[in-house]
Amino acid sequence: MEQKNNKKHVLLVSVGGSAEPVIYSINSQKPAYVIYFTSRDSRKIVRHGVEPELNYRLVDHEIIETENGEDLQASVRVLLRRLPELLAKWDLDYSVLQGDYTGGTKTMSAALVLCLSRFGCPFSYIGGTARDKDNLGVVINGREQMLYRKNPWDVLAVNDLQEIRLLFNRCSYREVESLAKKTAVRVEESQPFFTGLQHVSAGLYKWDNFDYKRAGGLLQRGIGELRPFIQGHSSVELKVFLQQLVVCQQRLDTLLRDTLLFKPNPSKKEQQQLSANINVDGQTFIADLLANATRRGEIEYKYDDAVARLYSVIEKIAKIRLKTVYELDNSDLDLSKVPESLHSGLRDYSLNVFTGKIQIPLGRSYALLASLDDPLGNAYLESAAELEKVLGIRNMSLLAHGFAPVSSETYAKMLLIALQFAGIKRENLPSFPLLPAGIDLL
Asked: Which fold is adopted by the domain 6-155?
């Protein structure tokens, strides 16, 4: 009785001088489609030795012939060229393809495995319970045994890990989160690593987008998942990576306290937190915002985004100084705390007619600091000409009031000014960890 095939299963099988292992493999697995990978010499085996012995009807089959069964490059080249063509012809893809590397020359078997490894395809191999030549030769007919092997590249997530590392180190955390989640479903032993990396990446993405509270929860979860796996691993580089993540989490705790300085109506609990932390001076926030700007400008090359953050840095520096030193809020200015000689100018030009609050922008905030004889305000006045020039370019950018793109030169100038105002050296900016190269998760 003719037996049914597996409707969408495609078997790529290498063919050598013996038909028996090919027949056994096909009849055992019953793929709907077969691609025979042959040499010039073994091609005739398909027609005269294999096809007459099949116990069911194939939907279709094709032959890929290598011009030289001993040439690895030629064999890989023909497979990479022809496989996509044949799968497209059948309206199928690599997800339904399996390789059997039992037959053919050693070079042909190697070529088949090399080509399919990158696509996560599984493999099969015809072993046996007995071989000739004192059990060192070929499998004796009738003693064949079908062996299934997962793709080692798939199990060890070699390709995924390489791609994840590149994306992670380019700050493409959303993409890493998605890829790590998919990989974690497929692997077993290294699943905690990819699950942890998924949540760490989600946390860093939230952090990069100023959602510090959610970032903290995700980072904590990811570190908790990574810790037992990495501590039990021999890699020193992974242990350093874990420690860097812990340092990031600690910095985020300080950063969250710093953001209370900008909250318009902090709760009693938050006010108590501010009072209890006398060292909350906003410097962690400023350093973090500068680091965020450098990631946009020097890793992603998004100069408009970077300059928008640098403008915010310069603006927040003045805001923090007014609040922490003079107890003045430039978004709701209390004139009773300002010298009377400055009242009229501030009231006439900075009153928000909708809210009734006196709100002063960047330039006037620094001018107020200068009027209070603050060193930061005086420094602003001294560099006003250069600063106004750079800010003018920023104001004409698409993310501000104009349509002109921001250049790398403008970004570099504004970064230098922001660093000077913050009193921070470029090399002292905090950074996110990088995934080390050559990670072996075995």
From this structure: Rossmann fold (3.40.50)
CA distances from residue 277 to 252, 269, 325, 430 in whole angstroms, order as listed: 15, 12, 15, 21
Tell me the domain boundaries of the chain: 6-155, 158-258, 281-428
SS3 (DSSP) at 149: strand
- Architecture of the 158-258 domain: Orthogonal Bundle (1.10)
For the cut 80, the answer to whether the pLDDT of residue 151 exceeds it is: no
Give the number of other CB atoms < 10 A from CB of residue 167: 20
Count CB-CB contacts under 10 A for residue 129: 11
Q: How far is CA 220 from CA 191, 217, 250, 386, 437, in A?
A: 18, 5, 10, 43, 24
* pTM for this model (two decimals): 0.74
Rounded to an integer, the average pLDDT of 279-293 is 91
In whole angstroms, what is the distance from residue 197 CA to residue 283 CA?
Answer: 29
**Distance (Å, rounded) from C-alpha 258 to C-alpha 170?**
27
Distance CA 440, CA 81 (A): 31
Whole-number Å distance between alpha carbons of 139 and 16: 14
Q: Which residue has the tokens 């044949």?
A: 86
First-to-last CA distance in the chain? 47
Nearest to 304, CA basis, from 380, 239, 401, 389 = 401
d(Cα 149, Cα 29) in Å, to the nearest integer?
14
What's the mean pLDDT in 16-33? 92
